[in-house]
Amino acid sequence: MIELIDVYKVYKVGLHEVTALRGINLKIEDGEFVIVMGPSGSGKSTLLYLMGCLDKPTRGEVLIDGLNTSQLNDKQLTELRRDKIGFIFQQYYLIPTLTALENVELPMVFKGIPKVERVKRAKELLSLVGLGDKLNRKPNELSGGEQQRVAIARALANGPSILLCDEPTGNLDTKSGRVVMDIIKRLNDERGVTVVLATHDPSLKVYADRVITIRDGAIC
Fold it and tell me: Which residue of 14, 158, 169, 200 lies most exposed, with the fewest beta carbons within 10 A?
């Protein structure tokens, strides 16, 4: 499903170079739930961005379903992200002027799905995350945990086979964080969605099939 082969990522900061990832070799199987552990600045987010085709490696290869992402053009990368990959971030990135229903509809708009089908699917996804009674609420009318659940529903809008989660419970209290993690785990168990979740919280290890530790840009 996901494979990284000798991956390096180097950023230029002024006249200096900062190496965020150093020779990463990693394979994640279809349907796995993998947690990437590490402190702030260890390279967790960079790793997820490369897996999600939001960035390209400086050196090495990132393969998604056998496709070498470095060989894809911008249109092909956009289609790969749209159709196969869902993203959940620490920040919810909901559009404040749209309702929960409209926020979940949005990825389907970009895919050209008809309105009736979009609404039906968005309602089903919001019910899945326990927000079927809050379809018309705007983000400022929802709690942090509820906003994150809307973000999960939005990430699932186009039926991705991969879910990439970057500190998804980082802004939540313990109870809300547990609700969010239970939803993500259920998607993995019941729908076979491949999950890669970056966190510095060791209590989340119980959800994973496998835990990978990263430090200073390298897998320990």
Answer: 14
